[in-house]
Automatic annotation (TrEMBL), chain A:
Keyword list, A-Z: Cell membrane, Membrane, Transmembrane, Transmembrane helix
Limits of the MacB-like periplasmic core domain: 17-207
One Gene Ontology term, aspect cellular component: plasma membrane
Ranges that cross the membrane: 288-311, 332-358, 385-406
Subcellular location: Cell membrane
Membrane topology of this protein: Multi-pass membrane protein
Cross-referenced Pfam families: FtsX, MacB_PCD
Keyword Nucleus: no
InterPro entries reported in the protein's UniProt record: ABC-4/HrtB_transporter, ABC3_permease_C, MacB_PCD
Protein name: ABC transporter permease
Ranges of residues in domain ABC3 transporter permease C-terminal: 290-405
Domain of life: Bacteria
Automatic annotation (TrEMBL), chain B:
GO molecular function, one term: ATP binding
Classification via CDD domains: ABC_MJ0796_LolCDE_FtsE
UniProt keyword Nucleotide-binding, yes or no: yes
The protein, known as: ABC transporter ATP-binding protein
């Protein structure tokens, strides 16, 4: 019986192949979208962990999260160094990571920070940063590269790096009088950190010492050695991350910062803010999923069309089977098994194709979009989607199967065609 | 009686709608091994009679008994099994599944009926030997070792393969629905003599429906549906 079904399919391989192709492409699409959604979400929530509060100038929690963690958008205002010092010296505070933003290199953002960044920053499941090569900065003009920066620009240890003033690839103002030297390259983390360069706050101050309001002060030109003699204590910073002695103090600390008298500050809980941001993004994610579900629906409809058309041509075939003793129920099962077989095969092909695509474009997607796709097994959501597809295929197959059932009853041994 | 009686119809009435009786046969008995020619113009209830004899439909009243078994006592599934076991069917044309070889087409009934499979094995030792014997008997020996796609056969050859299929596993009854209508005069006579000879050899009750009266001569009995079925005259 199974052999009959397979031979019958093989006999109609031309049209069946097209059905299989469209169906497996749509399965690939659905699986791919789900994979993208899952892995994006994963790397999204993995960007920062172990940080209790992020503090910046008062704006909104989303902008603060976006510019401090994701490097998207512009900070509205800076924080005074004195405010930072005062909060950092609180008893409840275990560590702080200062962050200064605003400069870039070849389109990658430069972060001014301190060694506490390397020590305390955690991502994913409480993972710490680690060096692939070299060490975190200790000389004034040392720069540390994120994994992707090093790979994309082909930089190695001790290479010279000139930082551009401001953001954007085409920035004209370069700090070429004070070149940096690559002192270390970080291991890949799958977070925006891979796309950043790191210099010390003192270095940040040094390259901006002869600048005011985005341009060089005319006549004032300190060279790299002369600047080392100056006081390089920063006057401002963009934001800072706070680790507390005990998470119990989080809300108390947040309130204290939000009501800070000297200047308007804001403290956010990264987990809560990430969740809020994801809520915004999930609308896009859901509509993408709906679109691919529609594609599945369309190709199942296509399969239905082809099965129904072929059913008319197969009326004779069904009558022959009936004549040699196949009952209507058996003929129904024969037709149903065909669509179930097609759906299964298309699903297997689709999943295979999805993995092939992930395997081939993994690196490119990571480099271009910062989304790290993993070659893991199917997620529970993907398995659930696959089961839904099987069910939809079964239901689709029921229609021609029921029709064949009635054909065999009506035609009996004297087919009309 | 049941030993020799192959088909018996009794007080048979069949209609599509309550008012429109298609078939009304008072009594008809066919003996085992009897070769019967059923003639009748279209609309005289030939297809209905075939469907009733094949157990595909049930009469509204009266009884169809095959080999002593009243079909109305069987469920549809059992009737399907009964047909697979005891009845060979031969259509006008397009009897074969294009995607199966000659031998696979021929052996199709053995897939659906354990009885016919067992009988073939008993008689010939293996299914292939059975298929070969029948192909030889029907002048198709050249296709035994040359399994060409059936679509490459001529219509006459296809009908002979179909006849071999209807005969394999020695079913007691063979229903033939104008199997010669697509054949030319030469092949028709060859086909008829082979069919009659083979069904005689297997002691099969042959019910041969046709409107080609020239073919009726070698048959044991000729039944005219026009006279047998009063419902036709009424309509």
């Amino acid at each position: 019986m199974l052999k009959l079904a397979l031979l019958s399919i093989w006999n109609r391989r031309g049209t069946i192949f097209l059905t299989l192709l469209t169906l497996s492409i749509s399965v690939t699409l659905l699986m791919g979208v789900e994979k993208l959604r899952h892995d994006t979400k994963q790397s999204f929530f993995n960007t920062v962990s172990g940080t209790d509060l992020i503090v910046g100038a008062r704006s909104g929690s989303l902008p603060l999260l976006l510019y401090s963690v994701f490097g998207i958008g512009q900070p509205t205002n800076n924080i005074r160094w004195s405010s930072y010092q005062q909060i950092a010296s609180q008893e409840a505070v275990a560590w702080t990571i200062p962050i200064t933003l605003g400069d870039s290199h070849q389109g990658f953002k430069v972060i001014g920070t301190e060694n506490s960044f390397y020590e305390h920053f955690k991502f994913g499941r409480q993972q710490s940063l680690s060096m692939a090569e070299g060490h975190f900065f200790d000389d004034l003009f040392d720069v540390v590269l994120g994994a992707e920066v090093a790979r994309a620009l082909g930089y190695q240890l001790d290479d010279a790096v000139v930082i551009a003033h401001g953001l954007g690839r085409g920035s004209f103002a370069q700090h070429q009088d004070k070149p940096f030297k690559v002192s270390g390259i970080l291991n890949a983390t799958g977070t925006p950190i891979d796309r950043n360069l790191f210099i010390s706050l003192a270095a940040w101050e040094a390259i901006h010492i002869d600048w005011r309001a985005g341009t060089r002060i005319p006549g004032m030109n300190l060279d790299a050695d002369a600047v080392k003699a100056r006081d390089l204590t920063p006057k401002e910073l963009t934001a800072f991350m706070v680790g507390l002695q005990s998470p119990m103090a989080t809300f108390h600390m947040q309130r204290a910062i939000n009501t800070y008298r000297t200047e308007p500050l804001q403290a956010i809980l990264p987990g809560v803010a990430l969740q809020e941001l994801w809520q915004v993004l999930s609308i896009a994610e859901k509509s993408l999923l709906i679109v691919s579900a529609c594609v599945i629906f369309a190709s199942l409809t296509g399969m239905l069309g082809i099965l129904l058309t072929s059913l008319n041509e197969r009326r004779r075939e069904l009558a022959i089977l009936r004549a040699v003793g196949a009952g209507p129920l058996r003929i129904m099962v024969l037709l149903l098994s065909e669509s179930v077989f097609l759906t299964l095969l298309a699903s297997a092909l689709g999943v295979g194709m999805m993995y092939l695509l992930v395997f081939s474009f993994q690196d490119w997607i990571a480099l271009e979009y910062g989304v790290f796709l993993t070659l893991n097994g199917l997620t529970p959501e993907q398995v659930r989607l696959l089961l839904w597809i099987q069910l939809a295929g079964l239901i689709t197959g029921l229609i021609p199967a029921i029709k064949a059932y009635y054909y065999t009853l009506i035609d009996g041994l004297t087919p009309k065609i | 009686m049941t030993q020799t009686c192959s088909v018996s119809l009794n007080q048979l009435v069949f209609s599509w709608k309550k008012t429109n009786t298609l078939l009304n046969i008072d009594s008809l008995t066919l003996h085992k091994g009897e070769q019967v020619f059923v003639q009748g113009p279209s609309g005289s209830g030939k297809s209905t009679l075939l469907n009733l004899l094949g157990g595909v439909v049930l009469p509204h009243s009266g009884e169809v008994s095959l080999l002593g078994t009243p079909l109305s006592t069987l469920s549809q599934r059992k009737r399907d099994r009964f047909r697979a076991d005891h009845i060979g069917v031969l259509f006008q044309q397009f009897n074969l599944l294009p995607y199966l070889s000659v031998c696979d087409n021929l052996l199709l009934p053995c897939q659906f009926s354990k009885l016919r499979r067992a009988r073939t094995l008993e008689e010939y030792g293996s299914l292939n030997a059975g298929a070969h014997a029948l192909l030889e008997a029907l002048d198709l020996a050249e296709y035994i070792h040359h399994p060409r796609p059936v679509s490459q056969l001529s219509i006459g050859q296809q009908q002979r393969v179909a006849a071999a299929r209807a005969l394999i596993g020695a079913p007691e009854i063979l229903l033939a629905d104008e199997p010669t209508s697509a054949l030319d005069a030469d092949t028709r006579h060859r086909f008829m003599s082979l069919l009659l000879e083979q069904s005689r050899q297997h002691n099969t009750t042959l019910i041969f429906v046709s409107h080609d009266l020239e073919l009726r001569h070698p048959f044991d009995r000729v039944i005219d549906l026009k006279t047998l079925n009063p419902a036709y005259r009424v309509n």
